[in-house]
Amino acid sequence: MTAEAWLAQGFSGAEAQSRADLQRTVTARFSAVHGRTARWGWWVPGRVEWFGKHTDYAGGDSLVSAVPRGFVVAARPRDDDRLTVLDACDGTRGEWQTGRDGRPPVLISQAAPGWAVYVQTVAGRLAANFPDAPAGIDIVVASDLPRAAGLSSSSAFMIGVALALIRRGALETHPSWTPALRTRLGLAWYLGCVENGSRWGSLAGDAGVGTHGGSEDHVAILTSHAHTVGHYGYVPVRLHREVPLPAGVTLLVATSGVQAEKTGAAMAAYNRAADAVHRMQAWWNRETGDSAVSLIAVLARADAPARLRRWIATQPDAARLDARLQHLQREQACVAQASHALADGDVVSLGDLAAASQRDAELLLGNQGPETLALVDMARRAGAYAASAFGAGFGGSVWALVPDGECDAIAQAWRAAYVRDWPWHASRCEVFAASPAPGVCDVPMQMAT
After folding, report:
1. Which residue has the higher pLDDT, 263 or 441?
2. Is the Cα dihedral 340, 344, 349, 350 positive or negative?
3. What's the rounded mean pLDDT across residues 310-319?
4. Once rounded to an integer, what is the mean pLDDT over residues 128-146?
5. What is the largest CA-CA distance in the chain?
6. What is the DSSP code (8-state) at residue 32?
7. Which of 192, 73, 47 is nearest to 122 (CA)?
8. In 3D, which of 85, 91, 90 has the Cα closest to residue 107?
9. How far apart are CA 400 and CA 374, in angstroms?
10. Is the CB of residue 387 less than 8 Å from the CB of residue 380?
11. C-beta pairs of 415-422 under 8 Å, 24+ apart in sequence
């Protein structure tokens, strides 16, 4: 697409031109490496979580929007059963041997240990759920989304690979491709299960990538619209409403420079928060014979909160479980109030709610570090109406809602204050406008101009 075509999709002038440049990088690299043009292409953005920290996998709500940065993905089918993925920006590449017997792909060569697991997970799950579908394909990606910064770069990458393999295998016509998967919300829920390994309907699960998260990222990436914030519920996934961004404000994002990885010790800490939720839900269902699909569904039962707390008091990790339950209840209430405040353009209330959400993440959820805490405080001091950290935690980014007329000045002051106090993060700290952008869309693969 040309810059004008990207503009028509809902991007600003500078954003549209940068999307066209990214597309040009991908198409040129694809032709240079594979000696032919790509047949299919997609835009796959990152996302901002406004409110709803660690609520999605518990069946709670969140406020999310896509950002005007992400991946351009180009692909073309192969005549054999090889799957190749190339990052056009850094040259890293992986190659797999696929099959049509439902077995997982076999890695042949790997020059990208950081992302190979995501390709392996997606390709393996699709092969198991939709056996006999062809999967030979060449994929090239390019991204301007900060990696491991809480903006869902890994989920966006996985979705890009999944979309290419779905198109290659004509999975929309597969007998197991249910009507629910033909909707964006249903596909987002399924791809969230691909990432976390959960079963989805009749489609069997596996190990996933190792994290026990939900589908919030996938929903935001696949279903967002320009200039609006989505208020979604999860388990099951559903749209409550879309809230237009109030006039006169801009959303800024600052990356802390602390990578929000979900590997090693960080994965264990992330999973502890999720596992506590599933453990409480499982106890309730065993104790009562209920079949509640989520902890939020459990808490809707009149006697559940009191009974849960009596059980928690008997557990060796009672303090941690009680804090996790408190956080979920408080954050769920915060999402509902923030949705109304945003719809009313009430930036004062939004600021108060963001501050409360941030305090609860620090004191109850326990997933904040000194850098994200500092960035939130510095944003408010620089003149932001509201600010809060987002992502899985243990690093990541902070969003800030600021007056349009002061956007550039606040962005500069915000970054300068952070770099002054945390100079070792200067090379990875970036502040950029991230007002709500379109979600996934098809991109014609002719050269952009």
Report:
1. 441
2. positive
3. 98
4. 96
5. 66
6. H
7. 192
8. 85
9. 13
10. yes
11. 415/254, 417/378, 417/381, 417/382, 418/254, 418/256, 418/371, 418/374, 418/375, 418/378, 421/374, 422/257, 422/371, 422/374
What topology does CATH give the domain 3-244+437-442? Ribosomal Protein S5; domain 2 (3.30.230)
Q: Do strands 82-87 and 137-143 pair parallel, antiparallel, or not at all (unpaired)?
A: parallel
Q: Nearest-5° angle of CA 430, CA 432, CA 438?
A: 130
Is the CB of residue 169 less than 8 Å from the CB of residue 134?
Answer: yes
In the numeric block, which tokens belong to residue 441?
A: 């869309």
Using only the alpha carbons of the chain, give its radius of gyration: 22
Distance CA(395)–CA(171), nearest Å, equals: 37
Q: What is the DSSP string of 396-408?
A: -EEEEEEEGGGHH
What is the full DSSP assignment across 99-159? -SSSPPPEEEEES-TTTHHHHHHHHHHHHHHSTT----EEEEEEE-SPTTSSS-HHHHHHH
Task: Give the residue carrying structure tokens 């030979």.
Answer: 136
Which residue has tokens 């993925």? 85
Query: pTM here?
Result: 0.96
Q: How confident is the model at residue 260 (pLDDT cuts 50, 70, 90)?
A: low
Given a contact cutoff of 8 angstroms between Cβ atoms, the answer to whether 381 and 373 are in contact is: no
Per-residue model confidence (pLDDT) at position 55: 97
Query: Over the chain, what is the mean pLDDT?
Result: 94
Cβ–Cβ < 8 Å for 153, 146: yes
More confident of the two residues 11 and 448: 11
Token couple for 46: 């990152």
Residue 138 burial (10 A CB sphere; 0-12, 13-18, 19+): buried
Bond before 131 cis per omega within 30 degrees: no
Work out the pLDDT band at 417, boundaries 50, 70, 90: very high
Domain boundaries, the chain: 3-244+437-442
